[in-house]
């Protein structure tokens, strides 16, 4: 099965110049825990609810003046729409991430694949169990 068969299309995104308050409101409005950060059409990072908690709130950042670029995760793991679902699962397992941006052949963001997508849409229970086990392993940090 290809990633394009199970991805969530047209994901919500945020700009690196948006405030963290604006990004958090978007997360709340759409009930999501991660926003790809795009500078125009280029993927430059990701912002998770954990980034907001650890890098912003815990550090006392002003939500109305702190920019997404200041607290986002700049290293983004991603996959391509024409890859197999198993390829995305391997990335999720190895990097211990729950969501991956999906790019097209021009490296433009077209969707997101999450553990939930694997669970609901792939129909491969063994794959889901393997990914969940590895993603949830403590990293020793």
Overview of this protein structure:
The chain is of the alpha+beta class and 141 residues long. The protein has one domain: CBS-domain, CATH 3.10.580. Helix content is 38%, strand content 20%. It contains six helices and six strands; from the N terminus they run βαββααβαββαα. A four-stranded mixed sheet has the order 1-6-5-4. Helix 4 packs parallel to helix 6. The N and C termini lie far apart (34 Å).
What is the fold's blueprint, element by element?
Elements: E1 8-9, H1 20-30, E2 34-39, E3 42-48, H2 49-57, H3 68-71, E4 79-80, H4 85-95, E5 99-103, E6 109-114, H5 115-122, H6 125-135
Parallel strand pairs: 4-5
Antiparallel strand pairs: 1-6, 2-3, 5-6
Helix pairs in contact: 4-6, 5-6
Defining traits:
alpha+beta; CBS-domain; 4-stranded mixed beta sheet; two-stranded antiparallel ribbon; globular; 141 residues
User: How much of the sequence is in beta strands?
Assistant: 15-25%
Q: Can you identify the CATH superfamily?
A: CBS-domain
How would you classify the helix and strand content by structural class? Answer: alpha+beta
- CATH class membership: Alpha Beta
What is the typical, i.e. mean, pLDDT? 88
Largest sheet: 4 strands, mixed
How many runs of DSSP E, i.e. beta strands? 6
Q: Which fold does the CATH topology refer to?
A: CBS-domain
The Cα radius of gyration reads: 15 Å
CATH architecture: Roll
Residues in helices, as a percent range: 25-40%
How do the strands of the widest beta sheet line up side by side?
1-6-5-4
Whole-number tally of structural domains: 1
C-alpha end-to-end distance: 34 Å
Contiguous uncertain segments of 5+ residues = none
